[in-house]
Specification:
Elements (H helix, E strand, L loop, with lengths): L5 H13 L9 H8 L3 H7 L3 H19 L7 H14 L1 H9 L4 H23 L7 H22 L7 H10 L3 H7 L1
Length: 182
């Protein structure tokens, strides 16, 4: 049995609160009181609640990408699972996007996390050969597009199913990356 870490418990506490309260109104004291930890424990693990949010997103994306390439788990499934992750957490993510002062920094962080995961995957497929400038630029552009589309979808500006969003992601893969991802 895997025991939860302090980071996981603090994140779960934050998510419980975010289900019923605006993110910008949640305090560190509320997070720690909700799970029985002290503020010192929080600050040993995170700088602030935005650091917690970023860590949680990075962990969720890394978990999905870690499966890619193993046991016939294609990149297409990664795109679908990423869309499903956003869909399953739509209310929570919409709360984050609507009620934080860091909308832009949060989306930039999401792009960085997604780019890092994509780059790691491409390197594993190409034998750890450095990405060309064209591949790097294409990967960054793709990640910006995926995150931008995901944010609009999460905020209800795009009406689409998980399958439709995943299909758009797949169709948007830039040509220089197709040999690695499709």
């Amino acid at each position: 049995m895997k025991r939860k870490t302090a980071k996981e418990i603090l994140t779960a506490s934050f998510q419980e609160l975010a289900a019923v309260k605006r993110v910008d109104k949640i305090t560190i004291r509320e997070i720690v009181d909700n799970c029985g930890y002290s503020p010192a424990t929080f600050y040993r693990n995170f700088k602030d609640k935005y650091d917690l949010i970023a860590w949680e997103h990075a962990e969720a994306v890394a978990e999905i990408v870690a499966q890619t390439g193993a046991d016939n788990y294609p990149w297409k499934q990664t795109l679908y699972d990423g869309a499903r992750l956003y869909h399953e957490n739509k209310d929570y993510l919409a709360n984050l996007l609507r009620h934080t002062s860091g909308y832009e920094s949060f989306t930039r962080y999401m792009v960085r996390i997604n780019y890092s995961a994509l780059e790691k995957y491409v390197l594993s497929v190409n034998g750890n050969q450095r990405l060309t400038r064209e591949e790097t630029t294409s990967a960054k552009m793709f990640c910006h597009g995926v995150v931008g589309l995901a944010c609009e979808w999460i905020l209800g500006q795009i009406n689409a199913t998980v399958e439709e969003i995943a299909e758009v992601y797949e169709q948007s893969i830039p040509e220089p990356l197709k040999k690695y991802l499709l």
